[in-house]
């Protein structure tokens, strides 16, 4: 968004993201709609939180993002989650394969103690 057209709820970082995905004016944002604008930011590789989704809706409704009614928030989240589910997997990273555990045998063929993968290595339990 340009300096003359400051939208409610849209800070400098969000405005920069929107500009980078081609949403430069309030009219651009209105034409795209809340969920599509959010998805453009997400597809561009940024990591927007749901607060951006609510902020975009508040900007279009000219209200504070916290004033967006719960029912509308739920609609927005459901729409965004459905759109996110259709996104292709991230490039350069293969889909995660199942995790397997390999037991190494000591010289005397007794199994070595296993490490619980759920325990944080920095915790006192490890």
Automatic annotation (TrEMBL):
The UniProt entry, under InterPro entries, shows: TfoX-like (IPR047525), TfoX_C (IPR007077)
**Ranges of Acidic residues compositional bias?**
117-126
Q: By its UniProt entry, which Pfam families does this protein fall under?
A: TfoX_C (PF04994)
Query: What are the start and end residues of every segment in region (Disordered)?
Result: 105-126
Which residues belong to the signal peptide in this entry? Answer: none
UniProt cross-references to Gene3D superfamilies, sorted A to Z:
5' to 3' exonuclease, C-terminal subdomain
Locate the TfoX C-terminal domain: which residues? 5-78
Q: Which residues cross the membrane?
A: none
Provide the protein name: Transcriptional regulator
What is the originating organism of this protein? Cognatiluteimonas weifangensis
Highest lineage ranks of the organism?
Answer: Bacteria, Pseudomonadati, Pseudomonadota, Gammaproteobacteria, Lysobacterales
């Amino acid at each position: 968004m340009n300096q003359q057209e400051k939208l409610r709820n849209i800070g400098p970082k969000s405005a920069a993201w929107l500009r980078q995905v081609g949403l430069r004016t309030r009219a651009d944002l209105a034409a795209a709609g809340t969920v599509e604008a959010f998805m453009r930011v997400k597809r561009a590789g940024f990591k927007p939180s749901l607060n951006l989704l609510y902020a975009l809706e508040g900007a279009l409704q000219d209200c504070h993002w916290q004033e967006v009614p719960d029912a509308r928030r739920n609609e927005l989240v459901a729409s965004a989650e459905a759109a996110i589910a259709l996104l292709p997997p991230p490039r350069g990273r293969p889909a995660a394969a199942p995790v397997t555990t390999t037991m190494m045998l000591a010289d005397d063929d007794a199994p070595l103690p296993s490490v619980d993968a759920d325990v944080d290595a920095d915790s006192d339990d490890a």
